[in-house]
Amino acid sequence: MLKFVLTVTCPTKRGIVAAISQFLAENGCNIVDSAQFDDLHTGTFFMRVTCVSEEKATLAALESGFESIASTLDMTYAFHDSEKRMKVLLMVSRFGHCLNDLLYRWKIGALPIDIVGVVSNHFDYQKVVVNHDIPFHHVKVTKDNKPQAEARLMEIVEQTEADLIVLARYMQVLSDAVCKKMSGRIINIHHSFLPSFKGANPYKQAYERGVKLIGATAHYVTEDLDEGPIIEQDTARITHAQSPEDYVSIGRDVESQVLARAVHAHIHHRVFMNGHRTIVFPASPGSYASERMG
Length: 294
Known about the structure:
Layout: E1 2-11, H1 16-26, E2 30-39, E3 44-53, H2 59-73, E4 76-81, E5 86-92, H3 97-107, E6 113-120, H4 126-131, E7 136-138, H5 146-160, E8 164-167, H6 176-181, E9 186-191, H7 202-208, E10 213-220, E11 230-237, H8 244-267, E12 271-274, E13 277-280, H9 288-291
Helix pairs in contact: 3-8, 7-8
């Protein structure tokens, strides 16, 4: 049985859903989940459809047959094999909470990806990574060797055929060239205090200012530092009775959950770019406890 996801983006027109549904029905495909959004401000239509087919249809045949409809409706579209796991490269520096969380979710099957390697500018998590039978790549980064370090990173991306890079608290800024080359394929996580409380210890600054909410933001990486399209966010309430150490601990938990949910949405093709914003469709039923995370 073939199970796949069809993603569609196109200008708003009448008959889009009907055309897609008719094509799938005529080709022996049964729709099991569908989500759509028509952005009236931009005149852009977005749709994600999960289908199954017990006939001998192939993705190549479906793509070829769908081309005439896509051309008529000016669509950008893709058919994704639901059984094919996305190849993911993780990057980390010296804070390991997000890395460990992703490794755990991957190990128990809650995050269906192929982790093809972990890149770090430090050796802190080498043993953890190797113990998971995952290749560990140490790429030292200094002020003087950044071009060489990024060239090595891109070599690893090409060698592993990574579909996605996840910055699991990787504390080095990627160049504009890497951001452009990997556009829409790098996800970052950070606290949600920005643009306030910049620097090495944002949680201490937040404590000193009496902040009552701690949050985290996962977004796609662009040339504009920490300003890429947002995929996922969450917050946790705190009180005056909690210490700076509590702030850090709560922040770690929120960051880990938000990053995992963002990665999960991306690998299931639920995130659509809409200018500087994203359209994120809800999780499909039937994917490990309805794809619930966190």
